[in-house]
């Protein structure tokens, strides 16, 4: 496998292998940090006001965490409204030093803070950075809830309930506009769990120019006629079932080479879909790894493998794949 940068950018970190287990028995503090009101990447219609970055804590503080977790509001063209996402800026973040970005999609029902409350992702990232196991990176958690209601299920898809697949692209552009990022697909990873894992696969495959790495934590790859897809046409179902459409993506994947990591718990009802998707990905040239772990469909599984996923993302950022141009 040939490694390199397309297009080029400075190489500044060398990944180290291994996994470190961090005991994170506290809830993190969400520090608003530097506020930046305004529209961000998308233009705002006349008469629409975008709130400033939220500076108050989003969760109760037991111990202050280095870095800043904050909620950003911006106008989303896809959703035709003010939308938001959470962003975590690691310690020593500065506009003078651009960083790669790791995007995490929550499950349904769920919320962006799930990665903080259930997996303590920020202190674990800080520990891995301090151990030189991953490079500093920005974490971003989009909000896939319909109307902000935790009990809803958008499937992170473009449906009559909202164009949430396109909203993720809006978030990427706003993050690159607002923060010091390395704005290359090779410097972005998208991951998700459960419905968010399906979303990571579907979003990442629909626009290969956005992400160089897709991680699927206990996901599925075939949509069903329920919820937001209850009345969808056969064409819409195919277009939102990665296992059905990936076979036609060989040419795109030559231009935009892709890494993917798929895993699932052995007792998960979605386990039967994993290996067919792995075979389909390999057939069209995706550099794919996979695992079936003991366990089911739960945070104990996802939290238990979080450090591995961050380490893999860091390695992918430093060792990008080369496309055909």
Order of helices and strands: EEEHHEEEHEHEHHHEHEHH
Please tell me how large the radius of gyration is. Answer: 19 Å
Sheet-strand content, in percent, reads 15-25%
What is the name of the CATH topology? Rossmann fold
SS element count, helices:
10
Major pleated sheet: 8 strands, mixed
Specify the overall morphology. Answer: globular
Identify low-pLDDT runs. 1-40, 56-64
- CATH architecture level-2 label: 3-Layer(aba) Sandwich
> What is the highest CATH level, the class?
Alpha Beta
Helix content: 25-40%
The strand order across the widest sheet is: 1-2-4-3-7-8-9-10
* Arithmetic mean pLDDT: 86
Distance between the termini: 17 Å
> How many structurally independent domains?
1
Counted beta strands: 10
- Pairing-aware structural class of the strands and helices? alpha/beta
The CATH superfamily name is Alpha/Beta hydrolase fold, catalytic domain
Describe the model.
The protein is an alpha/beta fold. The chain has one domain: 3-Layer(aba) Sandwich (Rossmann fold), CATH 3.40.50.1820. The protein has an eight-stranded mixed sheet, sandwiched between helices. Helix 2 packs across helix 10. The N terminus is likely disordered.
């Amino acid at each position: 496998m040939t490694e390199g940068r397309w297009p080029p950018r400075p190489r500044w970190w060398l990944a180290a292998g291994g996994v470190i287990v961090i005991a994170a028995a506290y809830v993190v503090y969400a520090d608003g940090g530097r506020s930046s009101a305004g529209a961000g990447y998308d233009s705002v219609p006349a008469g629409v006001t975008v709130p400033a970055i939220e500076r108050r804590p989003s969760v109760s503080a037991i111990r202050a965490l280095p870095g800043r977790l904050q909620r950003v509001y911006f106008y989303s063209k896809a959703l035709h409204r003010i939308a938001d996402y959470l962003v975590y800026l690691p310690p020593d973040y500065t506009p003078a030093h651009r960083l790669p970005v790791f995007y995490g999609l929550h499950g349904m029902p769920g919320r962006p803070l799930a990665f903080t409350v259930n997996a303590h992702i920020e202190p674990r990232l800080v520990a891995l950075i301090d151990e030189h196991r991953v490079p500093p990176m920005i974490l971003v958690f989009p909000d896939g809830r319909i109307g902000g209601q935790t009990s809803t299920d958008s499937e992170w898809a473009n449906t009559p309930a909202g164009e949430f697949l396109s909203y993720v692209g809006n978030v990427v552009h706003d993050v690159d506009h607002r923060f010091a990022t390395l704005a290359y697909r090779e410097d972005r990873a998208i991951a998700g769990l459960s419905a968010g894992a399906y979303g990571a696969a579907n979003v990442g495959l629909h626009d290969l120019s956005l992400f160089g790495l897709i991680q699927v934590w206990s996901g599925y790859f075939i949509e069903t006629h329920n919820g937001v897809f209850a009345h969808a046409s056969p064409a819409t179902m195919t277009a939102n079932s990665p296992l059905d459409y990936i076979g036609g993506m060989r040419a795109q994947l030559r231009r935009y080479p892709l890494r993917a990591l798929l895993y699932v718990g052995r007792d998960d009802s979605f386990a039967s879909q994993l290996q067919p998707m792995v075979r389909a990905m390999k057939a069209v040239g995706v550099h794919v790894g996979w695992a079936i772990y003991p366990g089911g469909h739960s945070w104990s599984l996802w939290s238990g493998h979080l450090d591995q996923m961050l380490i893999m993302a860091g390695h992918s950022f430093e060792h990008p794949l080369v496309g055909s141009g």
